[in-house]
Write a structure and sequence with these properties.
Layout lengths: L2 H10 L2 H25 L3 H9 L6 H18 L3 H20 L11 H16 L7 H5 E2 L2 E2 L10
Antiparallel strand pairs: 1-2
Amino acid sequence: MNRGGSFMKSLNSLQPLGLLVLRLSLGLIFFSHGYPKLAHSGAEMQDFFVQHGLPGYFVYIAGVLEVFGAILLVLGLFTRAAALLLAIEMGVAIWKVHSTGSYLAVHNYEFPLAVLAGSFALATVGAGLLSLDHPLLERGGKSRFSRNSELAR
């Protein structure tokens, strides 16, 4: 008996749980960063955005995207679209805020890069079985958006 093969099969059976953990973790992160942008979006927060080359009103756009994107991730609803928008936002954050100096100084942007990677992963594979997307997007046992992807179901 191939022990490695059965171990991999048991890991495969945990994919829905893994995607749920990823969604919940990213949802918590985005909510905890987005809520203060909306609750405390005064001149100081707007000045921070302006200092980094973004219009001051972007604090509201980022806050709404992060709070509502987090809620969608937690629910597993419209996950791919929400995750893609959040990944793009993290790309802009790395570019405008965190990449001061050399790109070799990964410590300056490692957290937003990890959040970008997790968001991009959800955008590409979907929310998984333990989500609201699963019953809404399924038709005849196959996802409407990805015929070949088992993870999207």
